Amino acid sequence: MFMKGIIALLACGLLTTATAAIPQVQVAAPRQPLRISVDVARFRGGDDKHAFIEVYYSFPRNSLTFTKDSAGYAAGLDMTLRVFQKDSVVLADRWLVPQTSAEAFGDSPVVNLVGLAQVQLMQGEYLFRVLGRDRFDLQRVDSITLRVPVQPVASGDPVLSDLELASSIRMNPPTQNQFYKNTLEVVPNVGGIFTEEQRCFYYAEAYNLVRGNDSADYVLRTTVFDAVGREVLSREKPKRRPGESSVIVDQLNVSRLKTGTYALVLALLDTSGRSLASSGKKFFMYNSKLGVDSSLLTASANLPMNIYMAMGETELDQEFRWLRYEANDIERSNYEQLSGADAKRKFLSDFWRGRPPGRRDEYLARVLVANQSMRAGTKEGYRTDRGRVLIMYGNPDDVDRHPNEIDSRPYEIWSYNNIQGGVIFVFVQRTSGGEYELVHSTHRNELHDENWDREGITR
Predict the structure, then answer these.
(1) 329-336 and 341-353 are packed helices; what angle lies between their axes, rounded to 10 degrees?
(2) N or C: which end of the chain has fewer CB within 10 A?
(3) How confident is the model over 264-274, as pLDDT tens digits?
(4) Is the whole-model pTM more than 0.85?
C-alpha cells in the first residue's frame, strides 16, 4: 500500500511540506468561511488485490488569511488526510497548499482551488478524514469524514469504475499536469454543482470487456434522472471493444435542466440490450434562468424515487440521520429495523411522499446550510443548536449578533416574526471557538429562561 498527495491548483503555487515562518501582520482577512468539499472515486489498482482511490477536494481561495511577506502576500491551507480501518490509522499524509498574490487579496472574486490525493488500498471498509487548517489562523479549521468501502476489481464480468464528475476534460495535456491520467487532463467538479453556463463532463473506466472470444460491440447508455426518477436525458452510443479495458469520457449539455438534484447513470449494454455493468453519481443543477422544477416532487407511489437509485447504503443512512428533526419516533424505530439498500430506498421514498410537495428539497437545503456554516469543531452543523433551529424553523427574519461584548460572552438573538405571533431564540458561545448553545426562547416548545441575560452570558 502507498499514498501520494497530489495538489492541483487553479492559481499559481508549488507543492511543499515545509512550514514557513508566520508573518506577524495580517493584511487581508478571509472573505468567506473555511469550508472544504470532498469527494472520492474508486478505480482498479495495480493488481487484483488493490483498488486505486482518488480523493478530490476544493475550497474557496478567499476563505484563506493572506499576510504580508517579502514577495507580496501569502496564504496557505495545511491539509491532512488520514485513512482509518477499525479505529486504526492505516495511512496518513500532510501537505501545504500555498498561495501567493502581488496585491491584497480581500476584494478578489471567488475562485475555488481544487486538488486531489491518491491512495491504493486492499479490500475492506475505511474512513477517510480530510482536514484543512488556515496556515495563518490556526483556529479556522474544517474537516470531512467519508466512509469508503473498497472492493478490488477481479477478473470476470464487466465492471465500471465510479463516475468522476469534472468541470473540464481535455486531450494531451503535459504529463506533469497534476490532473493527468490516461492522456487526459480531468479537472474534478468536487461539489458536483453545475450551472446553465457549464457542461457536465464525466470520466469513468470499464474493465473485463473481453471474455473468451466475445469481441462484439457494446452500447454505452447515459441517462439523467430527476429527483423522483423521471428520465430527463438519455442517449446511446455504440462502442467497439478496444481491449480488456477502456476509458470513457463524455459531456452533457445540462442548460435545459431546471434547478434541482439529479442522478447521472452510465450503463454498458450488450447488443441485445442486456445490462453488463452500471455506475451512478448524483449532481446538483443551479439554473438561474429556468428556476426550480416543481414537478420533481410528483412520483409513482410504488417505486423508489430514482434520486435514491444512485445512492448506496452509507448515503441512505446519512440522509436519514439528517432527518432527526423531521422523523417521528415510530419512523425512526422502523428505519432502524431495515436491512439492505433496497429496503431503505423504498422507506425514504415513502417517507417523503407522505410530506407536502417540496419538503425534501427545502429540508435538505437547510441541512446543507447548517453543515456549511454552523459546524462546531468536529460536531456537524446539523447537530448544533443553531443548526437544529434553522432546519426546524427556517431562516430567521432577523439576527442580532453580539460577538465582541466587553463584559459578556458572544451571543446571538434570532427573531421569527411569523411563528406563534413572534418568537426569539438566544444562543450563547460559552467557550472560545465553541458551539453557540440555545439558552432561551419564547417559543412555547423550546427552552425558556428569562434570566439568560443575567446568568447565561456573563464572563
Answers:
(1) 160
(2) C
(3) 999 998 877 78
(4) no
